[in-house]
Amino acid sequence: MGSTVAEGVAQGAGAAPSTVRASRLTRRGRQRYNRREAIAGYLFISPWIVGFLIFTAGAMIWSLVIAFSDYSLATGEMRPVGTRNFENLIEDPRVATSLANTLFYAVMAVPLEIVFALGLAMLLSRLGRGSGIFRTIYYLPKMTPAVATAAVFFLLLNGNTGAINQGLAAIGIEGPQWLIDPAWVKPSIVLMSMWAVSGTMVIFLAALKNVPRELYEVSSIDGAGPVRQFVSITLPMISPALFFNTIVLSIAAFQTFDQAYLLFWRDQNNAAPEASLFYAVYLFQQAFRQFNFGFASAMAWLMFVIIMIVTAIQMRFGNRFVYYEGGR
Amino acid sequence: MSAVNMPEAITAATRKPDEISGMEKRSSAWRRGGMPASRFRAGKVVLWVLVIGFALLFMYPFAWLVAASLKPRGQVFDNRLVPETFVWSNYADVWDQLPLLSWLFNSVSIALLAAGAVAISSTMVAFGFAQFRFPGRGVLFGLVLATMMLPGAVTMVPVYLIWKEVGLLGTWAPLWAFNLFGSAFYIFLQRQFLLGLPRELFEAARMDGASYWRIFWRIVMPLSIPSFIIVFLFEFQASWNNLQAALIYLNAGSVEEFTAPLGIAYAMTRYSPTAGGQGDYQYVMVASLLVTLPMLVLFAFGQRYFIEGIATTGRKG
């Protein structure tokens, strides 16, 4: 009894001074911690630590082991096969096809999405009072589940009766067979991603809003036109958002799955154009249709490495032109 | 690792976190300076034409979806925005054609579990990172951010095997239970918010003899409701849309056990014209509309939170 009271008092009295102490550095330069507080801190983050150990670190190690093994789902047996899965990756022409398709799509989709989203954001930012309602309208596609989007665009993109080609016909253009012609399969998915580009737009809107208005006023007194202002003021000021959106959209493009799967690979009894075979789709098929877990894991690691390389390149390049207000 | 440095850099570039919702306020005033009135007015007209034109483009698929859901069997593929004949009974028949009610029930339940679990666990973890001092905090938080870079494909197979090992394949658990352990992006989001709360608040509560656990439920939770809602809505939407996990974990089961996205994918195959003539695709349209509506309602009520959350993403990195 006595000891708990003493502890309570010590704890109560100690709370404030101890935190002051904790923030001070000892002579050795190492921070000292309040033991009670530290333990409580670990307890609060413990759900994440457990999840990380199981679902991230553990899963990654296991994935790596599987990538170098032959795994039989039926028996749960795992046999080390060295680098055979990776050799199979190189030998399988569909891996190369899906990789090329995905890269081609990313190179086409990301710049278009960036330009379109930025254009929309600039329109809205100039609108003034009425922009709220339009922002809402532009955002609605982003709220639409991918299945619904795919179900609708499946009809809109129909080469003969679809609204898109009929609209093109009205202005004298003969539209392509979007969903059949291998050359137009990926542009049709780009089109769908453009429809739902508003997440990117909202980030640009927030960035544009933070550009100091005085910069434009001063520069227009100096005689700078709209183009000059865009290049010399807007672009540098929103470059962090530009940089961020490019990286996020690129990573997302590499992992494109839903639209390609729903439009082309949903039905296993039907042939789909190879041009629509995205990397993530092929990976999924290998993993959960063929249950080639070793092969699929090897594919996943290849994807991870490619994403890391591309992101690293973008970061290196980005650091050169991204302007951080107030330095880094 | 540069992925870890990026957030601070981007945060530094845009300083005011709380003004996002009022973004329309900064209007076009700056454009007016020095421009002749006629040119200004012409520019304004072009601007409005473009803005309204894009709005129509964005709305067109929705209008089309509504129209197609009301068309009779043979006319779904006709490109006609107003149906020739309105078949209201599509909305009654769809429930017999597809186990839509089960799908919606499954999806709502899973989304609620997923969103509730991740919002509470992420707030907890974020509180730990934001307001406690302990050795290794910086490194561990760096790890949290680093996990955001990991593509889901890398852990897809082992995570499936984990659920198989613990005998939970065929249940809902693989679709939401990992959310009990927090999620990197949401932990980051909540931590940003909790960092803004003064430490004195917690110290005062400690002096009054409140335990950390009590502080969490009585002070942190109520105060973090705005960001809690953002996390909840984001995850609800993500779960509602999640096709791939449903394909992995529910596809082998009976049709009644599907979630809404998996169900619609199934319906697309069943009714699509390539799988046996001009099928009853109008039912796919009705189902798509019914799956989209909850999201639109969610957005109608939570728009502020969605926009704020997305804009915060941009500052995050």
Provide the fold topology.
The complex is a heterodimer of chains A (328) and B (317).
Chain A: H1 2-23, H2 35-67, E1 69-72, E2 77-80, H3 84-91, H4 93-127, H5 131-143, H6 146-156, H7 163-170, H8 182-195, H9 198-209, H10 213-221, H11 226-254, H12 258-265, H13 279-288, H14 293-321
Antiparallel strand pairs in A: 1-2
Chain B: H1 2-13, H2 29-32, H3 37-69, H4 90-97, H5 100-131, H6 137-147, H7 152-165, H8 173-176, H9 184-195, H10 199-207, H11 212-223, H12 225-241, H13 244-249, H14 260-271, H15 281-316
Helix pairs in contact in B: 3-15, 4-15, 5-9, 5-12, 12-15, 14-15
Helix content of chain A: over 70%
Tally the helices of chain A: what do you get? 14
* Mean of residue pLDDT values of chain A: 86
Total domain count of chain B: 1
Write the CATH fold name of chain B: MetI-like fold
The greatest interface here is: A-B, 126 and 120 residues
Strand content of chain B: under 5%
- CATH C-level category of the largest domain in chain A: Mainly Alpha
CATH architecture of the largest domain in chain A: Orthogonal Bundle
The percentage of residues in β strands of chain A lies in under 5%
Order of helices and strands of chain A: HHEEHHHHHHHHHHHH
Separation, N- and C-terminal Cα atoms of chain B: 13 Å
Short description:
The complex is a heterodimer of chains A (328) and B (317). Chain A is mostly helical and 328 residues long.
